[in-house]
Write a structure and sequence with these properties.
By secondary structure, this protein is an all-alpha fold. It is built from 15 helices and no strands. The chain has a single domain, classed as Orthogonal Bundle (Ribonucleotide Reductase, subunit A), CATH 1.10.620.20. Helix 4 runs antiparallel to helix 5.
């Protein structure tokens, strides 16, 4: 891909980006559902076990944790990488237009972190359910473990690849919420603003991936490609430590929460991961970085 062939998704950024044209959304009426139950492992079983009040708390706690995960993802993983790309310190040779667009993404992501943190505060004020947040999430723990497993010289490229993965997966997780009429209007509107920006980020990192892959030696490509499945599963799969933590905070007995979290098998998780990661994996397959069918089979078995 040459600089002439790069097609920027940011040509209308000044008139479309949420940080430029979308104000903070005013709080609307509370609803009974603050998080899509279908995104919760064992939601049908839990709804029959928890009291109505505990179930309501559990939904709110899940939304707060999801939003906090988003803030941490943007601030701790994505922002450092897009800033380095923007100031030409990524180690990847890029057209000037791509470096410029990376600075726009840096601005977007800082705003996403700010309005997401604001959304958490307003949900707390409206529901009287205080956030109960873990120190880290499964994605961060897996990312740190995998990063430590590669040679120090390869870690900057690993950071770039993890950002590619997260930016091509996050839009998938966001997309259904704005259409979910069970959620409060202001929650759906904030998520919709985020989702619109992330579509541009997804397009950017799809274009960025070939530049990153060309910058690597064959052995480096092989090492990094082998780490992608665990990264995808950690991003889209279950976080059992978080599930147990939130169940206890919702009011379930600690032993019961531990038993449910570790004994319950959700056979839909693997196929869902394979489906929701299809675009992310397909772009890698186009570069012959992975075998798409074998990769999807591996994810479906997660």
């Amino acid at each position: 891909m040459t600089s002439a062939s790069y097609r920027s998704a940011f040509e209308n950024w000044d008139s479309r980006a949420s940080v430029r044209v979308k104000p903070l959304r005013p709080t609307t009426d509370e609803t009974a559902t603050f998080f899509p139950p279908e995104q919760i492992t064992g939601h049908e079983e839990l709804r029959g076990v928890l009291t109505p009040e505990a179930w309501r708390r559990y939904l709110v706690l899940n939304m707060q944790a999801y939003l906090d995960f988003t803030v941490q993802l943007e601030a701790l993983i994505v922002l450092p990488v897009t800033a380095l790309i923007g100031v030409d310190r990524s180690g990847v040779e890029l057209p000037e237009a791509m470096r410029r667009d990376a600075m726009a993404i840096t601005t977007d992501e800082a705003w996403h972190g700010q309005f997401t943190a604001d959304l958490m505060r307003r949900i707390h004020a409206q529901t009287s359910v205080a956030p109960s947040l873990p120190a880290t999430y499964e994605f961060q723990r897996t990312r740190d473990r995998l990063r430590d497993s590669v040679a120090p010289a390869l870690r900057p490229a690993f950071d770039l690849l993890v950002t590619y993965v997260s930016e091509t997966l996050i839009s998938t997780r966001l997309m259904s919420m704005p259409r979910d009429g069970r959620l409060p209007g202001y929650v759906r509107e904030v998520v919709a603003d985020h989702c619109e920006d992330e579509r541009r980020h997804h397009a950017y990192f799809r274009a960025f991936l070939p530049y990153l892959w060309r910058s690597l030696a064959a052995s480096e490509r092989s090492t990094l490609a082998a780490l992608v499945p665990d990264t995808v599963v950690a991003f889209l799969g279950r976080d059992k430590a978080l599930e147990e933590h939130l169940l206890v905070r919702a009011g379930m007995d600690a032993a019961a929460a531990r038993d449910f979290t570790h004994d319950f098998t959700d056979r839909s998780v693997g196929p869902r991961i394979a489906r929701d990661s299809l675009a992310c994996v397909r772009y890698l397959a186009e570069l012959h970085a992975v075998d798409l069918d074998r990769f999807q089979e591996r994810l479906a078995a997660a």
